[in-house]
Amino acid sequence: MTGNVALAFGLTVLAGLATGIGSLIALAARRTDEGFLAASLGFSAGVMIYVSFVELLANARTSLAAGLGPVAGAWVAVAAFFGGIFLIMAIDFMVPSFENPHENMRLADGPPPGLMRMGVMSALAIGIHNFPEGMATFTAALAEPKLGAAVAVAIGIHNIPEGISVSVPIYYATGSRKKAFWYSFLSGCAEPVGALFCYLLLAPFMGPAMMGTMFAAVAGVMVFISLDELLPAARAHGAGHHEVYGLVAGMAVMAVSLLLFI
């Protein structure tokens, strides 16, 4: 179990560090290939949606049925799934829309006033959102490393434009690449903090029923992130059907990768 914990935490750290990758891209590149970004976001959404409905919810029902019985287990799985959705909805509700980077992520827009405050508030908002994402990655990797790796990659792709949304306004406000990078990097650190919180708080109770509940809640979190953040952002950045092609590709890659390990 110790090895699995270390691997799960490592994957969560890597997913969180992707905000720093986004910052480096923003600071090094003169223009962003928004079609590629849209396809990547769609790919990430496809991975997360497919994993949530095909793998996580199925595992949740199996684990909960083993601990609570088939009928009660099914009800708890559904309740936990929507509980995960309501959790991330509550977090979105607590972050005002004008300070929530997911409400407006177009990179081509001109720099508005109040850039430094916007960048700092974006970092704070992203940190708040990344906390449950860290719990999701950690839980998935703890139960099944290959599944956790897929979730970490999907969330990492999703974190890259978040890093861009933090670093660009801070860089334009201060002229400091170092400050822009560190604010972006620190916003991603909320993911390993979420993983650590999950482990310290829930580890003593990690039986089949708890794992099943966590699986279902994580599925709800990832479905909401995909529908509320990834696909709208992909649509905003893309032209034509970039996000749909990415979505289908993500589902297909995830489906084949799961079949290879049956």
Ends distance: 22 Å
Net shape: globular
Task: Note poorly predicted spans.
Answer: 101-112
Total of DSSP H or I helical runs spanning 4+ residues: 9
How much helical structure, as a percent, in the residues?
A: over 70%
Mean pLDDT over all positions:
77
Number of strands: 0
Structural class: mainly alpha
Share of β-strand residues = under 5%
Overall domain count: 1
Q: Report the order of strands and helices.
A: HHHHHHHHH
Subunit organisation of the chains: single chain
Radius of gyration: 18 Å
Report the major sheet. none
Walk me through the structure:
84% of the residues lie in helices and 0% in strands. With 262 residues, it is mostly helical. It has one domain (2-28, 37-259). Helix 1 (2-28) packs antiparallel against helix 6, helix 2 packs across helix 5 and helix 4 (115-143) crosses helix 7 (190-202). Mean pLDDT is 77; it is low at 101-112.
Task: Compile the SSE list and pairings.
Elements: H1 2-28, H2 34-68, H3 70-94, H4 115-143, H5 145-174, H6 177-188, H7 190-202, H8 208-237, H9 242-259
Give a summary of the structure in a few sentences.
This protein is mainly alpha-helical and 262 residues long.
Keywords for this entry:
mainly alpha; 262 residues
